[in-house]
Design goal:
3-stranded antiparallel beta sheet; disordered C terminus; GSP17M-like_dom; General stress protein
Length: 116
């Protein structure tokens, strides 16, 4: 999968669900949509409830994924965001939003380079 992910910052899980439904209406498939929160359990809960993805080994690559086991949560989150095609600066900015309790909804197409 190539290309930079579209990222939307939302204030709550319910806003994340609204954003995910909007992405579905725009033609994104569940496997094209990702959620990320600072808390791992919250990320897993939202992804499960919306039937979308979390950033996994497939997106990160094996080496980066294994390295995340030894990183702080902030470093891990930034690495996940960079794996989604964001620059280091963008990853730092979005990780700061996660620190404030925000949720990220991301999308990128597996079949085309379309961006929102």
């Amino acid at each position: 999968m190539n290309g930079k992910a579209f990222v939307r910052v939302v204030d709550s899980g319910s806003k994340a669900m609204e954003e995910i439904h909007q992405l579905h209406r725009q033609g994104y498939l569940p496997e094209d949509i990702y959620v990320l929160a600072h808390d791992r359990d919250r990320t897993e809960y939202l992804a499960g409830a919306a039937d979308v993805n979390t950033i996994s080994v497939e997106e990160e690559g094996l080496i980066r994924s294994v390295a995340n086991w030894f990183r702080s949560r902030g470093d891990e989150l930034r690495a996940k965001l960079e794996a989604m095609g964001l620059s280091r600066r963008e990853a730092e900015e979005y990780e700061a939003e996660l620190d404030r309790g925000k949720v990220l909804v991301m999308a990128r197409s597996r079949t085309a380079d379309r961006m929102l």
